[in-house]
Amino acid sequence: MTQVILPHNGWRPREYQQDAWNYLRKGGKRAVLRWHRRSGKDELMLHHNAIAAMERVGSYWFMLPESAQARKSMWAAINPKTGKRRIDDAFPETIRRRTLEQEMMIEFINGSTLQFLGSDNFNSLVGSPPVGLSFSEYALANPSAWAYLMPIVEENGGWALFNSTPRGKNHFRNQCEFAEKADGWFYSKKSADETGVFSAAQLSNILAQLQSDHGDEYGMALWQQEYFVSFDAAMPGAIWGDCLTKLEAHGRLGEFKHIAGYPVHTGWDLGYDDDTAIWFYQVIGHDIRVLRYEHHRFKDVDFYADLLFQLKQDNGWTFGTHYLPHDARPRTLAAGGKSIFQQFEAHKSRGIGKFAIAKRLDVQEGIQAARNTFPRCSFDEDGCEEGIDCLKSYVREWDDEKKVFSPTPKHDWASHGADAWRTVAVSWQFEKSRVMDNAGLEQQLITGDRAQRVFGDLKKRFLSRKRAERQRAA
Description:
By secondary structure, the chain is an alpha/beta fold. It has 4 domains: 8-193, P-loop containing nucleotide triphosphate hydrolases (Rossmann fold), CATH 3.40.50.300; 200-234, no CATH class; 247-429, Nucleotidyltransferase, domain 5 (2-Layer Sandwich), CATH 3.30.420; 433-473. Helices cover 43% and strands 21% of the residues. It has an 8-stranded mixed sheet with strand order 5-6-7-2-8-9-1-10, sandwiched between helices. It has a 7-stranded mixed sheet with strand order 11-17-14-13-12-15-16. The chain has a two-stranded antiparallel sheet with strand order 3-4. Helix 14 crosses helix 15 and helix 16 (428-447) packs antiparallel against helix 17.
């Protein structure tokens, strides 16, 4: 039998990688690497997977934000230093039973498997539960993937590694802050001026090139983010990043719980293979109190009706209007040809509120409506944490040919929560008008001329409101 030495091909950790490597080789189970671009974080994780797969028989998953990225940057990528595929550098043929190109999977001679995957499709993966998870570019990944997989590796005593450069103050920052303080976690931050990978002249040249390619502001943000691992650099292409920053500065991301006496409304984005996302909010005068964010996948209308009923029972909420996107009327969702709207309507007798179709705006109009809505909002951070992440991470596509951001938002894990927020933005003022109308009429009943105003105003306002509701439902 041929003897194989791992790590393969003479690889050894660089000096600044040694602490992380020692932690993992001594059996460490949780590690977060906030390392700069070209610091070798994926390389270290690949070699750790090779040894771990030989030491413990099991399934190992190496996850990029999307499956296409896994293929391009890991599975098919060539290491310029060796001229070989990255997987060949880390996993020699002598320890493989077979290599499945289509599935991006390696089967090892001892029965272990390693598969390269996209974290965007985490809850549709089948097969043996993983005993080792590697998240690469975690700042761009769907954070629900770790929430979903965490109980699995907790139960089977597996490990999980995370690496990334920052992308604004999103879930990766939260993960870093947690790992830095939590028992049993390893946390490491390495910027380009610490590791010696680049000289000062090279870093200066990189900045100049980035600014030449992307403009001064975007180029500087990329440089700070990618080489100095800064969370404070603006997320390039962020659509509402400045809006969230202002809310945070004014103390409107915090503890904002339900206020009795005001109905809870919702704004939706509907999906099945993709997430269905829901925002829960109250309209109080001219302000919006955002209470909760939910998202689920592969669920039918009955599931969501049950969810609303349970929230009503558990929290004592009274639901007002559930605003569905415009495609809820023609679309069906596994119910004998009935539209999604018709299916929800069938549940109204359960006391979970009424359903309406939101006004249809194109994407850019919806984005602007949302921008105008943010200054009126307060978000409960506990109930909305994942949703706030979506809003911060909603970005425009980068047009590499024209060197500008496209008007088109990027479709990824963050876009579902963002689309649901656009539903809120085009709908909440209907509830504001209703609240203000009712409040104004109550005041007139108390202080006004009852004999002259009560019946006529009641009739006029009632008919006007019903007409508006019919128009919204049309």
